[in-house]
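Worked example 3. Consider a protein that binds flavin-adenine dinucleotide.
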Amino acid sequence: MGKATGFMEIEREETIERDPNERIKDWKEYSTPFSDDMMKRQGARCMDCGTPFCHIGMEIDGATSGCPVYNLIPEWNDLVYKEQWKEALDRLLKTNNFPEFTGRVCPAPCEGSCTVAISEPAVAIKNIEQAIIDKGFEEGWITPRIPQIRTGKKIAIIGSGPAGLAAADQLNQAGHTVTVYEKADRAGGLLTYGIPNMKLDKDVVARRVKLLEDEGVNFIVNTEIGKDVTGDELKNSNDAVILCTGAQKHRNLPIEGREAKGIHYAMDYLTISTKNLLDKKINNEGLDAAGKDVIVIGGGDTGADCIATALRQGAKSITQFGKHPQLPVKRGSENMWPAYPQVFSLEYAHKEAKAKFGEDVRQYSIQTKKFVMDENGELESLHTIEMKKTRDENGIFVFEEIPGTEKVWPAQLVFIAIGFEGAEDAIIKEFSVSATSKKIDAEYGDFRTNVDGVFAAGDSRRGQSLIVWAINEGREVAHQVDGYLMGESALPSVVNA
Ligand SMILES: Cc1cc2nc3c(=O)[nH]c(=O)nc-3n(C[C@H](O)[C@H](O)[C@H](O)COP(=O)(O)OP(=O)(O)OC[C@H]3O[C@@H](n4cnc5c(N)ncnc54)[C@H](O)[C@@H]3O)c2cc1C
Ligand code: SF4
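Given these inputs, the predicted complex is written out as structure tokens:
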């Protein structure tokens, strides 16, 4: 149980980050490796509270609370405290296929519901998770596990994001022949093209894809299902098909002047920037922020990733617009433990922007009204107005414009980062699967679509979410598909236990 009195004696230690002014000169990960001693101290803080809310993995008030893959957190905290790293790794891999991803970029809903966090800063769970898996790779404890028996059943997975990879891993280990199809030129989904390199090094993603390949999973990249291969071809040549195609249909901002040159979707920008980095190209295909006034519309993490990318390209100025007011420093009475803490924080990108420009670049409670372009159609400025967030007579939040707060912002480059509508129409049509509000209809825990033999998991089913939920769905859909093919399944499942 860690050290009995550890939570009273030892303080939380945060991720050690590289100097923001230095790290914006390169694209390497912004955090530094942890020492074993530091992790041992943090493991000692786990109080083994008896009812560990840290791994409840459920939605409270629309936000995730506790770990969605139900990681055995108190167990590996204790093992790290006792320096039994190999045993800690075995425990971790029981529930999480890819802790090297979640340990780096999960927003750690486990920490918001950690019992220590009722009165003190939470146990540094996410850092411990990363330290365990990184040590596993460093020590050579992670080697290909090649299935000894093959069932002869063939499964096609469309999409190589965390949902597709987790499903592929589980089903391959069950002895099925798994092929993952990916339309991009590299596997990984948003782990590769979406999340920037400074948050998640692409070598870490490639290492895992290589390991899966060595274990027998087939990857076919540069192949779009519905264009290069039809859905019928896949259905006819496989015993089951799983749609793990994500929810990357852009949400647009169709206001006056939207056609101006210089306005781009955040995802296009992040994808091109990472592709150029990996292909070692200097030219950013017209999407270079160097010397420009950049505005990011959307206050979320995708917007923050655009800030970090534009900083590294040498933007002249950067501003991020958010519709919502600034969050409070401490939990409000409507946001009590163990719900995810809705509190103000400076993300890595915001720290970097503050170091570079001397202030937080976020503007809150603001709405863009129109874009203005010059005679050549090039974006020149944005017009905004401030908003007031109130509740209507039914208690629903509504936004009202505040007259007299109009403002004009010079900008040559704008990134739209206001979320995603859901799954792409093309894949829904190709398989004739039914969908509601752009989410493929397939009940959680069952994952069957209306088409026999076709399953859906991850963001394509759930809507844009988190890596850890995608891993959860990949594991759970694998259990269901295995049962569909074999009559029953020995693969782990929490929902169908
Ligand atoms: C910019 C950004 C940053 C994010 N940062 C974080 C973060 O820090 N932490 C976190 O937990 N979550 C983050 N998320 C969310 C997280 O990345 C997603 O929830 C997760 O990747 C969903 O996994 P998935 O496997 O369902 O889909 P995806 O990762 O979206 O993968 C779907 C894959 O399917 C492929 N595909 C689609 N259609 C076809 C087709 N017809 N043929 C072949 N291939 C196809 C796509 O090319 C893609 O590679 C972020 C999201 C974005 C956009
Ligand atoms: S996967 Fe996320 S929620 Fe689960 S233990 Fe790791 S950081 Fe916490």
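Take a moment to read the result before moving on. The two ends are 26 Å apart (CA to CA). The domain at 6-138 is CATH 1.10.1060.10 (Fumarate Reductase Iron-sulfur Protein; Chain B, domain 2).
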